[in-house]
Amino acid sequence: MTANSILNVWDHCVGKNQTFKGVALASLALNATDHSNIVDWSIEKRDIALFHVRKKLFGNQFDNISHCPKCNQMVEWDFNFEQVGIPSLYDIPDNIEILIDSHDDILMIRLPNSDDLFTNDASQIIRNCMINLKDLQSQTFHQNIPDDIINQINDKFDTICQASNITYHLNCVECSHEWQVNFDIVAYLWKEIDHWAKSLLDEIYVLAKTFGWSESDIINMSENRRNHYLNLLNS
């Protein structure tokens, strides 16, 4: 990952939705410009890739801030990369198939991928993930998926998708209210990259205005060299 490649991904993602950002940011793990394969990855594999991108760019520690839903008190919480047990990206298949016994039929389900999430409809996402829908004997599934089956599928998703389903139990020291928060690696990493990119562009502006260097010349400098020139201007 170079400064230029990260900046290009940031530029490509500004104004896009979270699903688009998740795919583009995951491409940094492969140094890839073609996102078509990543769109077909399960959300779990995509999020594992995002954790590895984040570790390489910003380190192991994840510091978070939440606000108590009862009294709005700020609560700080954190974890590190090792605590959540993120596996190697190359140990994870592009997708995983799950068998669900519905008594009348055996359903074959795959994990949702980014293409599914563009649908933004929970029931349609599950239907998209049913690999053998056309082969099922029961006509029920061709109309409405029973709630108990949806619950079974969601439970399986939650169990398998550890990187995509990280929750923390928080306790407010002010009012003793307890609640759970979900950690969203896409939103977290995007916020950090957005801040990094804007800071870098600010530095480029100062150096280009002062020395007349091009953007590409400044981006291709090492961080140490850029910082040295900026320190000279501030001395």
Write structural notes for this entry.
- The protein is an alpha+beta fold and 235 residues long.
- The chain is 49% helix and 15% strand.
- A hairpin with a 6-residue loop joins strand 5 and strand 6.
- Helix 1 packs antiparallel against helix 2, helix 2 packs across helix 4 and helix 4 packs across helix 9.
- The longest helix has 27 residues.
- It comes from Gelidibacter salicanalis.
- This is Phage baseplate protein.
Strand content: 15-25%
Low-confidence segments: none
The secondary-structure element order is HHHHEEEEHHHHEEHHH
Helix content: 40-55%
Tell me the Rg in angstroms.
22 Å
| Overall mean confidence score, pLDDT | 89
Q: What structural class do the secondary elements suggest?
A: alpha+beta
- Sheet with the most strands: spatial strand order: 1-2
Say how many strands there are: 6
Largest sheet: 2 strands, antiparallel
First-residue to last-residue Cα separation: 31 Å
InterPro entries: Baseplate_phage_T4-like
Protein name: Phage baseplate protein
Pfam family, one: T4_baseplate
